[in-house]
TrEMBL record, chain A:
Protein name from the UniProt record: Cytochrome bc1 complex cytochrome c subunit
Gene: qcrC
Pfam families per UniProt: Cytochrom_C (PF00034), Cytochrome_CBB3 (PF13442)
Lineage, broadest ranks: Bacteria, Bacillati, Actinomycetota, Actinomycetes, Glycomycetales
InterPro entries named in the record: bc1_cytC-su, Cyt_c-like_dom, Cyt_c-like_dom_sf, Cytochrome_c_Oxidase_Subunit
SUPFAM superfamilies reported in the protein's UniProt record: Cytochrome c
Binding site for heme c 2: C161, C164, H165
EC number per UniProt: 7.1.1.8
TrEMBL record, chain B:
InterPro entries linked: Cyt_b/b6_N, Cytb/b6-like_sf, Di-haem_cyt_TM
Protein's GO biological process: respiratory electron transport chain
Membrane topology label: Multi-pass membrane protein
Protein name: Cytochrome bc1 complex cytochrome b subunit
Cofactor entry: heme
């Protein structure tokens, strides 16, 4: 029985090592969560898995797991870890049809037909929130946007957003095939979630950079820009691209009309 | 001839006589009215520039009544809600008021801007016409050089105007100009400090540019345009070669009434097009750009199209910085920005002299050349045009990349490679096309027109019947000299086949049916 005792001792030893390791992890993790500053708007309130998160996990395991990995840990070279990204990020990516991504590319393009319903996106969000907390969207956002100061939002927009999305919110090119999308037809929630979570190439504008009120001002200006500005200059806006399309127009419209006129006038003799 | 008293005719005569008695007008007026201009559509391109310039002066005067060229900071309380309460310069605030509160102000602003674009576009097109037809050759080199100077005056005049409203795009443009100025070795930083009154953007640049924009440059433009047109009068207009046209005459229409009427009609048409564009197409929506702040640069910030090729060259040029420690640094923007612009000024100015030197052609030319007849020059011109177009596209490469879903990096590299390779290919292709066209002209002169009628010999050989342009020799060949003008290439150009159709928009002659068979027989009798 010496061999079996030895085996048992080895087993016990390994169990002890595991216990010590787990204990060390708990201490380190506890210290970390006690002392690390909170970066995001909202921490996960409880770690108890609720029914929404269970439903979300089911969806996750069939549609997201191949790139984002088991339990949202990420897969090297395919998809990043989702631990800590929060429900705002999930709802933004899923509701705009960016995720699930059809194929790996320069960036996930938004599509008109999201794979999941908004309810399903909420479940997925709940699951990701359960995995590691993260940022969420305020419930009274539309009311905040309604009251926000558009002009103040304009100043914030020009400093923070126009360098990628353009002065008219039409979007713009980034390097290596990526692009900043147009803000046209984007809901208040989506703009808010995008600012909060920094999808794709977009930087994160956390609440310590732009407060929720400032975000609401920004959204109010962006919505004014793409929806309410009536383009007083004419029925043709030339896509609000500025001098590039204006130059095209003077040759295609003005110059062409006048060249035909020269042919006409010189032909009449 | 005795005239009854009191008719309008005699009144006019009397008034004319009285005026002539006092001001001695009859002599010069007779010369002017009888001045003959050759008639061709391509001779009307410079007029587009002239008439849009006149509209620029008129609309610019209107804008000057309301614009305040001041960089004093004010708080906006005007009509445009999303800027209310925002700090901005007096210049930008007055440009906003001009757009939203002055009656007709936005229309005039847009007309001023569209006229600028048309002015510059028509100068370019006019310049291409002069270049490709060899109209710049002696004795007209001076006028070519004045034309080039007019383009560059217009270039800077337009750029200064673009800078005046002090909106986001204006300031970004000025910032790039500052970067280019600073890049000039040794004097750059001093020149920039002189321009901006110290550090960019300073507090004085707008009011300085304003005086240059509304007084100095318009005066220079007006003076040079006067000399430009005066020289066309004095040296007489060039004409295409053709029947009755020589190096020593001008065939065309008298100034009065024919030419004056056409010109007035054309002027009104140009203003009509510009008015329509100003009302229909939104241009330079400064309220969207916001006031200029040094920290704000929007994506897709472009200059107007005539500056865009330089912007494109700057975007394409590799980041080659020359550094000689410890003090000297030559930033990469110096090469495309300063050297590139300098060459774009100097090479066109010198071109007539260079061509004289290389072709050793020192004669005077009043007859134009068809572009195909000088393949080298035409190919060189197309090469420059291709280079310029790649520059312009690269100046807007971020808009292209985004809208056509192309990687911006790919656009940049395509521009870099294209800038070197495509002009060479364009030169070769144009040269071959010119030679081909020349050869076809000679072929028609030697063998006659292709009639499209196929014949078959008794021994089975197919051949196309050709219509000789003169009495052929026993081999069916004609010895006609090419005289530098259009060789007819189709039967109805020599009146042999109906329909002989005339009219621009719709037919003013019905095709005649009679005599068709007879003429066909005539053609068929002509040997190949």
């Amino acid at each position: 029985m010496a061999a079996s005792a030895k085996r048992r001792r080895g087993w016990r030893k390994r169990l002890g090592a595991l216990a010590r390791f787990t204990g060390a992890l708990v201490i380190v993790g506890g210290l970390y969560s006690a002392f690390s500053p909170s970066l995001y708007a909202q921490e996960a309130e409880s770690n108890a898995i609720d029914s929404e998160a269970v439903k979300g996990q089911e969806l996750y395991d069939t549609s997201c797991i191949s790139c984002h990995g088991d339990n949202g840990e990420g897969v090297e070279g395919r998809g990043p870890s989702l631990i800590g990204v929060g429900s705002a990020a999930v709802e933004f990516q899923v509701n705009t049809g960016r995720m699930p991504m059809a194929a790996q590319g320069a960036q996930a393009p938004s599509t008109e037909y999201p794979v999941f319903t908004e309810e399903e996106a909420e479940w997925l969000g709940a699951y990701i929130e359960y995995l590691g907390g993260g940022a969420g969207t305020p419930d009274d956002l539309d009311a905040m946007v309604e009251e926000a100061d558009v002009a103040a939002g304009g100043e914030l927009y020009r400093v923070n957003c126009s360098s990628c999305h353009g002065y008219a919110g039409g979007g713009g090119a980034l390097s290596s095939g990526a692009h900043a999308p147009s803000l046209e037809g984007v809901s208040n929630e989506e703009i808010y979630q995008a600012m909060l979570t920094g999808p794709q190439n977009m930087p994160v504008f956390a609440d310590n950079e732009l407060t929720p009120e400032q975000k609401a001002e920004l959204i109010a200006y962006a919505q004014y820009l793409v929806n309410d500005d009536k383009d007083p200059g004419g029925v043709f806006t030339l896509g609000r691209f500025g001098p590039a399309t204006e130059g095209l127009a003077i040759f295609l419209v003005g110059m062409t009309a006048l060249l035909l006129t020269t042919l006409w006038i010189a032909g009449k003799s | 001839m005795k005239r009854r008293k009191g008719t309008s005719d005699s009144l006019l005569t009397k008034a004319g006589g009285e005026l002539d008695d006092r001001f001695k007008l009859a002599g010069p007026a007779r010369v002017l009215f009888n001045k003959v201009f050759p008639d061709h559509w391509s001779f009307l391109l410079g007029e587009i520039a002239l008439f849009s310039f006149i509209l620029l002066l008129l609309s610019g005067t209107f804008l000057a009544l309301f614009f305040e060229p001041s960089m004093v900071e004010v708080t906006y309380h005007g009509a445009y809600v999303p800027l209310q309460g925002v700090e901005m310069s007096q210049a930008y605030a007055s440009a906003l008021d001009l757009s939203f509160e002055v009656r007709g102000g936005l229309f005039m602003r847009q007309m001023h801007h569209w006229s600028t674009l048309l002015f510059m576009a028509s100068i370019l097109i006019h310049m291409l016409r002069i270049f490709f037809t060899g109209a710049f050759r002696a004795p007209r080199e001076t006028n070519w050089m004045i034309g080039i100077l007019l383009f560059w005056l217009g270039f800077f005049e337009g750029f200064f105007g673009y800078s005046l409203p002090d909106d986001g795009l204006s300031g970004t443009g000025l910032r790039i100009m500052e970067g280019m100025t600073v890049s000039i070795p040794f004097i750059g930083p001093w020149a920039s400090a002189a321009l901006f009154g110290g550090q960019f953007p300073g507090t004085s640049v707008i009011s300085m540019l304003y005086i240059i924009h509304v007084f100095v440059f318009p005066l220079l433009l007006l003076a040079l345009i006067t000399v430009h047109i005066g020289l066309v009068f004095a040296q007489k207009h060039t004409q295409w070669p053709g029947p009755g046209r020589t190096e020593h005459n001008v065939v065309g229409f008298r100034m009065f009434p024919n030419y004056v009427m056409k010109q007035i009609g054309f002027m009104l048409f140009i203003w009509g097009v510009l008015g329509a564009m100003a009302g229909l197409f939104q241009i330079n929506p400064i309220w969207l750009f916001g006031p200029y702040e040094v920290s704000v640069v929007s994506s897709a910030s472009q200059p107007d199209f005539y500056v865009m090729y330089l912007d494109g060259l700057i975007r394409l040029f590799p980041a080659w910085e020359l550094r000689i420690p410890p003090y000297f640094t030559l930033p990469p923007v110096f090469w495309p920005g300063i050297v590139g612009m300098g060459l774009s000024v100097v090479l066109p100015l010198l071109y007539p002299a260079l061509e004289r030197r290389f072709t050793k052609d020192r004669g005077h030319h009043n007859l134009l050349q068809r572009p195909r007849d000088n393949a080298g020059r035409t190919s060189l011109g197309v090469m420059v045009v291709v280079f310029w177009i790649i520059g312009v596209i690269s100046g807007g490469n971020d808009v292209f990349a985004e809208k056509f879903d192309i990687s911006l990096n790919a656009m940049t590299w395509a521009g870099r490679i294209g800038l070197v390779v495509l002009p060479i290919i364009a030169y070769y292709v144009t040269y071959r096309i010119c030679l081909g066209l020349q050869q076809h002209d000679r072929e028609v002169l030697a063998h006659g027109l292709e009639t499209g009628i196929l014949m078959r010999d008794p021994n089975g050989r197919f051949y196309e019947v050709h219509q000789p342009l003169a009495e052929p020799d026993e081999h069916g060949h004609t010895e006609l000299e090419y005289n530098g003008w259009v060789v007819p290439k189709k039967m109805n150009r020599i009146g042999a086949l109906p329909p002989a159709d005339k009219g621009f928009f719709k037919s003013i002659e019905e095709p005649s049916e009679d005599g068709r068979t007879e003429r066909r027989d005539e053609i068929e009798s002509g040997k190949h």
